[in-house]
Structure formats: C-alpha cells, structure tokens
Amino acid sequence: MLLDEKLYDYCDRNSNRLPLYLEQLENETGLIAVNPFMSCGPVLGRFLIQISQWIRPQQILEIGTFTGYSALCLAQGLTSDGKITCIEINEEFKSVINKYFALAGKLDQLNLIIGDALLEIKNIHGPFDLAWIDANKQNNNQLFELILPLMRPGGTILVDNMLWYGNVLETDPDKETRAIQEFNQKIKNDPRVSMFLLPVRDGLAILQKK
Predict the structure, then answer these.
(1) pTM of the prediction?
(2) pLDDT band at 1 (very low <50, low <70, confident <90, very high)
(3) Whose CA is closest to 68, among 117, 15, 106, 17?
(4) Domain count, the chain
(5) What CATH number corresponds to the domain at position 86?
C-alpha cells in the first residue's frame, strides 16, 4: 500500500462506523483466506458505499468477489428492487458470501455466479449502472471490453489495484505490472470513456461510459 497503515487506521477511526456484519466478515476473512489483504478493507469500502449511494444503481456487476466485502459495500446503494451480480472463480468462498449477504438482509438481491468471468460474462445481460473489476490483472483489458457494452450510457466502472503497490513506476516491470501499465494507458486514451486514477489504497481507476 502506498499510504502508511497508521494513516489508514486514523481514517478508519475518524469515519462513520461500518455495519457490524462487515467488521465480522473482515475478521472471518482473516481466518479463512490465505491472502486476506485481497479484501478491499474499511477505508476503500466506505468509498464504495458512498459511490453506490450517490449512483443508486439498479444493477451492479462485480468481477472478483473474494469473500464478499466489496460486494456488500456496493450493495448498500442498490435500489429496493436492485440486484448485484457477482462472479467469483473460487467456490470455497460461496458459503461465506451467502452467509454475510443473509446477515445484511440482502441475499435476495444477490446473483452469485461461481466460474471464470471471461466465460461467464458472455451469458450476462445488462444494462448495468455500476461495475467493479478486481480480478486477475492480466485480464483487465479483456474484462473491460466485455463489460463496456453491458454498461448503460453514463454508467460507472471501477477498477482496483491500478497502482500495484507502486510497481507501475518500474521501468523494467514484470508481466502483471506491464499489463496494468498498458491498461492504464489504454483507458486514459479510450474515447468511449472518461477516466481518472485515484491514489486511494492501491489505486482506483474510475471510468464513466460516454
């Protein structure tokens, strides 16, 4: 992370308290997941809640759900008849995702798909108001091209980890870092979207379909 953990803790302490089930999910993720840091965490989570509440989406698409923390944050802004479609490749997290959506009283708004997003997304129909991409970084470009046609005009796409722990500044990057560098350049110059890169947590690209 680019920002000192103490500053994140300070931001966390000086923000509105999150729902208890999100705190419980964060704790359980730390116990069951090999890489619990893959969860977006409370600071970025609050940002996702606010974005979703501003947009008031009827349909959300999430690629890469992990244990469900970001999905639950995004679901806070759903309209009463809204749905969030989540695609997660690891079946081991299915029961945890369902458990915490039930605790949040939002299980009936969840459409959880277990599988490879590059395949599953071809069977999904939009339009979506809001999308979140947090999967294999080398697939960002393919996922973006699959998702963009499913977005309504003016729809928002959020892409996580676009600074890759600062590695995007490397002049001799590895394959994953190079993929992120190239994707950042692509969407910056893509006439179909407007985009800015926000240096919160590990870098968040915010795109709006024109």
Answers:
(1) 0.94
(2) very low
(3) 106
(4) 1
(5) 3.40.50.150
